[in-house]
């Protein structure tokens, strides 16, 4: 089954080996069950590929500690959720991919970097617009000088070091990772669900991603079920799904 998002990840990482290594190291902290749960009725489908009694598989984001299925969500979150679930479904059912956790972490890492690159360098009100992917426009250089003037001295310990190269680092992920429509303004499910939006330099980005993923997996799971999902479901059906969620075997990764 075609997994276009995996292809986007592969295409980007083959030209960015340092980022690939950082993602590889980061992925060692997680397992499949951190990200995904499935209803017991489709566990075999994901683990063996058998579809004999499966009429359809549906997914959503589940707030595990609140026992809440996120079905009534606004457009940007809905689009990002659908993208994430499609990516996960295709990844989990692809028996040729052995390091599935690596790709899940890569998806979050690059999507968050792309989102930050857009906010910093490409949005209509971006403070550091980039010219030809190589340097900041004069407005960006002026704003960078203002930032350095403000953060010198005591504020340095709070804001930290930030330079032109950090902007270009994020802009590279924005412009080179994946495909997006020119009107798209949201690129990361992590950023959409994470209320804490902190911009850090490129050296601290890996730590920022890990903090975001840790918070994400603490609060949320992607779930798949054989029951059709919609916001007007009966409570009994929702409870049946929630009470029958199980982890996938880690052997699915090998």
* Count of separate DSSP helical elements: 12
Distance between the termini: 18 Å
Oligomer: single chain
- Number of domain units: 1
Fraction of helical residues: 40-55%
In this structure, how is the largest beta sheet organized?
Answer: 5 strands, mixed
Query: What Rg is obtained from the alpha carbons, in whole angstroms?
Result: 20 Å
Q: Beta fraction of the residues?
A: 5-15%
Principal-axis shape: elongated
Main β-sheet, spatial strand arrangement? 3-2-6-1-7
Give the helix/strand class: alpha+beta
Q: Helices and strands, in N-to-C order?
A: HHHEHEEHHEEHHHHHEHE
Compute the average pLDDT: 91
Quick take:
The chain has 254 residues and is α+β, with helices and mostly antiparallel strands. It has helices at 4-13, 17-27, 32-35, 43-48, 75-92, 100-122, 138-151, 156-159, 164-176, 189-193, 205-219, 235-243; strands at 36-39, 58-63, 68-70, 130-131, 135-136, 220-225, 245-246.
Protein architecture, described:
There is one protein chain. The protein is of the alpha+beta class. The protein has one domain. Helix content is 52%, strand content 10%. A five-stranded mixed beta sheet has the order 3-2-6-1-7. A two-stranded antiparallel ribbon has the order 4-5. A hairpin with a 3-residue loop joins strand 4 and strand 5 (135-136). Helix 2 crosses helix 6 (100-122) and helix 6 (100-122) packs across helix 11. The model has no long low-confidence stretch (mean pLDDT 91).
